[in-house]
Amino acid sequence: MSQISRDDVAHLARLARLALTDAELDGFAGQLDAILTHVSTIQAVDVAGVEATDNPLKDVNVTRPDEIVPCLSQAEALAAAPRAEDGRFAVPQILGEGQ
Questions:
Q1: How many whole angstroms separate alpha carbon 88 and alpha carbon 78?
Q2: Does the pLDDT of residue 85 top 70, yes or no?
Q3: Could you tell me the domains of the chain?
Q4: Whether the Cβ atoms of residue 28 and residue 11 lie closer than 8 Å to each other
């Protein structure tokens, strides 16, 4: 027995304002029915006594330690810049006034 009919797909397409051909309606009806059948199979699995798992991996947010290391000074960073003004990188304006 089909869980979703061609008419159901046509109704959903109208709600979503999708123009589907007859072939697309038939194809999507079959695909959606297959998806719903798989979901029903999964929902039928007995999970009583199975502990819920949100992430099977124990290591989360593995990052390196936050350590202070030498870095460029402001002058060194700006030395290779095409243009610098007032200790900052100068870039061309891309938006007009008032935007």
A1: 7
A2: yes
A3: 1-44 (1.10.20)
A4: no
DSSP state of 4: S
In angstroms, rounded to a whole number, what is the distance separating the alpha carbons of residues 33 and 40? 10
Helix (H, G, I), strand (E, B) or coil at 49: coil
Rounded CA separation 64/56 (Å): 22
Q: Is the pTM of this model over 0.70?
A: no
Provide the 8-state DSSP code for 51.
Answer: P
Tokens describing residue 97:
């006034």
* pLDDT tens digits, one per residue of 9-61: 999 999 999 999 999 999 999 999 999 999 999 999 999 998 888 777 777 77
Helix (H, G, I), strand (E, B) or coil at 13: helix
Q: Which of 24, 16, 35 is CA-nearest to residue 6?
A: 24
